[in-house]
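W.,

You were right to be curious about this one. When I first looked at the sequence I had no strong expectations either way, so I just let the prediction run and decided to look at it fresh. Below is the sequence, 177 residues in total, followed by the output.
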Amino acid sequence: MNTNIAKRYVKAILSEFNQQELDNLVNLLNGMSNMILNDAKFSEIINSLLICNSQKTELLTQILDKQDQKVKNFFKILAKNKRLNLIPEILSELQNRICAKSNIYNGKVHSKNEINKGELKELEEKFSKKFGAIINLESVKSDYNGIKIYIEGLGVEVSFSVDRLKNKMCEYILKAI
C-alpha cells in the first residue's frame, strides 16, 4: 500500500521538477532518509502521533531553510498528509525511476570472499551486454556461502550457493545408489 502511495508522489515529482531541482531533491531525500533510518530521535519525531503536523512542518522548515519553494512545498504536503514516514520509500522509487529513465542500474554482489575489481568489472560488462543497459555493481561481503548478484531496478537476482550444490550432489548420489 505504501509503495503505491510513494509511486504517486514520485509521479508528481517527475512531472514538476527539472533535472537540477530533481538532483537537489534526491540529495535532500537521501539525507532525510538516512536521518529517519539511523537517528532514533528524528525517526520518533517523524512517526509520533503526539506531535502535531504543524510542529513537524515547522521542524522541516528550519531544516530546509535555504531550499527553494518547490522543495519546501513538497515536504509541507508530506507533513500535511502524514506521509513523512514514506520518505525512504519515495527516495527508493524515485531513484529506480531515474535509473530506468537513464538506463543505468545499480546492483550488489554478495559473497563470503572479497571480489576483486577485475572480476567485478567483467560481471558488469556481461550483465550490461545481457540487459542492454549500464550496470554498476558493488561488492558486499556477507555470510552467504556462494555468490548472489542482485540488480535492484531490473529486479534481477542470480545466485550460486555452494551449500545447495552440495545438497543436490548428495541427492543425486543417493538416487543413483
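Here's what jumped out at me. The radius of gyration is 21 Å. And, maybe more interesting for your project: Residues 77 and 83 are 8 Å apart (CA to CA).

Coffee later to discuss?

I.
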